[in-house]
Write a structure and sequence with these properties.
globular, 12 helices, mainly alpha, two-stranded antiparallel sheet
Length: about 270
């Protein structure tokens, strides 16, 4: 999800920061175990948020410990692995792979080509494990690419397509779908997905305006209007938070609120400082 759904660490105490890191490291270990060492390039805090959401909602058994890894060779760091890490690892790989395809199509990025080649094998494994979810991702990304090529498309059409995709991925919890919380999970994914797509566009406004790459905000105005963008994004964030608050979450709730109420704005605030 493009590095948007990240906690605001200043809102967390030391124990919460360690817990957040443990979930992140657990997802990293799941990536290595399920899809190979190279798949760790797809690791992100965005999908660690989804692990945390599922763990809080369904309260599965969890394996905890401390380990060293290539990024922490000297000191053991905490990890926590549960029932949903495999699914979130697969989504990490699939979304990262299609992001690489998109970057290659946009500007023939050499870096994206290398990453795409590295992730091809892990993506094939992810698609074999979760074919329906990966098919939905492929279809959504193709639809978004078509929207971005259409000069007459509505400015929010691509964000709706991305939101629909993320809503489906949030809702289809392996071994749990459908259940009592499917509608709330779909709503959270939909509104958060729309927010993520448009946040990425807001942050990339100047770059896309120079390069001519598709950007819904650039189509609306040749110059950035931070307040208008903030207002639009604020409405989407509010809907995502509303869906989140309808879920019976206790464990790690403060960490997740630090993501949804503050963390998702960090890139915007860095790009458009008052």
């Amino acid at each position: 999800m493009f590095g948007v759904a990240v906690a605001s660490l200043q809102r967390l105490d030391e124990a919460e920061r360690e817990r957040y890191q443990a979930l992140y490291c657990g997802l990293c270990l799941a990536l290595k175990r399920e899809f190979g060492q190279v798949s760790r390039v797809a690791l992100s805090y965005d999908l660690a948020f989804l692990v945390m959401l599922y763990d809080s909602l369904y309260e599965p058994d969890e394996r905890q410990g401390r380990t060293r890894c290539i990024t922490h060779p000297r000191k053991k760091v905490p990890y926590a692995i549960g029932e949903f890490d495999r699914y979130c690892a697969a989504l990490s790989v699939a979304l990262a792979y299609h992001k690489c395809l998109d970057d290659v199509a946009d500007d023939d990025s050499k870096k994206a080509r290398i990453a795409q080649a590295a992730l091809r094998g892990p993506y094939e494994k992810a698609a074999a494990a979760f074919p329906e979810q990966c098919a939905v991702i492929e279809g959504a990304m193709a639809a978004i690419a078509a929207i971005e090529r259409d000069a007459h498309a509505a400015p929010d059409a691509a964000s709706v397509a991305f939101g629909d995709m993320l809503g489906f991925l949030f809702e289809c919890v392996p071994g749990r779908f459908p259940d009592l919380w499917s509608t709330q999970l779909r709503d959270l994914g939909f509104w958060l997905g729309r927010f993520v797509y448009l946040m990425d566009a807001a942050v990339d406004f100047r770059q896309d305006a120079r390069s001519g790459s598709y950007n819904p905000f650039v189509r609306l105005s040749p110059e950035p209007d931070p307040q208008a963008m903030r207002d639009m994004l604020g409405c989407l964030a509010a809907r995502a938070c509303e869906a989140f608050e309808r879920l019976p979450l206790v464990q790690d709730a403060n960490i997740m609120r630090s993501v949804l109420y503050s963390g998702i704005w960090q890139k915007f605030n860095a790009e458009y400082r008052a």
